[in-house]
């Protein structure tokens, strides 16, 4: 069940990122019902959770809320990648490699080292 | 008291002089796994020497030698008898030992907990952003920057960006993912966490500081070697070049690309691995580092034990 909710979270975020505009729970429900049966309260719960997580912002419109993605998918991806990979000094968390600053000389030395071998060849 | 001093001197010597000894020559690049074990053994050796030195200062060797029952009596006496506790050596020894032990455990726990928290947060984000690709057996993130990494943990997986997928040939992608899986399978994040914890617990000590840097470098070489068992080395080298070039500054860490150069050269021109005799010598050194402090601490205990029994034999 938890796994199902996680998948629903990502489906809803995909949708919110794709439409790039505010939407009510009802509108999101209509979209989701195109390819599955799902209860209004389930969608409402998940969207509320996404709001708590800081992924969605909302404002009230009458008795319901209108939700909107806090940032675009591209911006969020860049933020996650920069913060958790480049920004973290704790290498035990995520093992990130190849994150070295190459000088132009080093870059060309690397390219040159590789030139000796034919592309796609079975060198070793 | 002599034991305590000898152990303290040994610890000091190991913490200051071992880094230079271990970094000598090119043997480490030819046997990264053994080199990692050596740095770990050296680190454990120094911590053990510190703890045993403190213990030796607190409890006289003669007492331990006269049997375990008497050791407990001695401990009980230490706790109840104020006269025994007033001895400065005992107090200093116990305090120093407790301090070292507390520092190692608290900093170690903090490093592990923080890493786990960051991993969970990143996993949550990946659940929204990434797509699991069954053919690659990796999570693909739609992002133009060329990145490949792994997220360790119980449900660990390799992660690669679309930017990396577009700039690398399929066989290079396979080689990179094999490298990442080698990290996951080898639990390299725990190796790094251990080195990180000691470097943070006792800052500015050459051994721990250099162990952290060297172990981080060596796990990369080791993962390259593991990947090279199944993938042609030239693909690994090409993938390294493809990922290391064309990077925006925000994603560049460290001062230079020295490790990247080493790794590419290592893949293209593999050096002869260490011979059997050299490996055996290395393993012996690891064992000596691990057992050394305990042997130093136990030598007078054994002597006292023998003296005690010989004395009883002679008097009966």
Automatic annotation (TrEMBL), chain A:
SUPFAM superfamilies given in the database record: Winged helix' DNA-binding domain
Pfam family, any one: Penicillinase_R
GO molecular function: DNA binding
Entry keyword Transcription: yes
Keywords (A to Z) from UniProt: DNA-binding, Transcription, Transcription regulation
GO process terms (BP): negative regulation of DNA-templated transcription
InterPro entries listed in its UniProt record: BlaI_family, WH-like_DNA-bd_sf, WH_DNA-bd_sf
Family: Belongs to the BlaI transcriptional regulatory family.
Official protein name in the record: CopY family transcriptional regulator
Organism: [Actinomadura] parvosata subsp. kistnae
Automatic annotation (TrEMBL), chain B:
One of the GO biological process terms: proteolysis
Keywords: Hydrolase, Membrane, Metal-binding, Metalloprotease, Protease, Transmembrane, Transmembrane helix, Zinc
Domain Peptidase M48: 124-194
Record-annotated membrane-spanning stretches: 6-22, 34-63, 91-113, 284-307
Pfam families hit by this protein: Peptidase_M48 (PF01435)
GO molecular function: metal ion binding; metalloendopeptidase activity
Required co-factors: Zn(2+)
Stored InterPro entries: Beta-lactam_resp_regulator, Peptidase_M48
Gene3D superfamilies according to UniProt: Metalloproteases ('zincins'), catalytic domain (3.30.2010.10)
UniProt cofactor note: Binds 1 zinc ion per subunit.
Domain of life: Bacteria
Family affiliation: Belongs to the peptidase M48 family.
Protein name, per record: Peptidase M48 domain-containing protein
Organism of derivation: [Actinomadura] parvosata subsp. kistnae
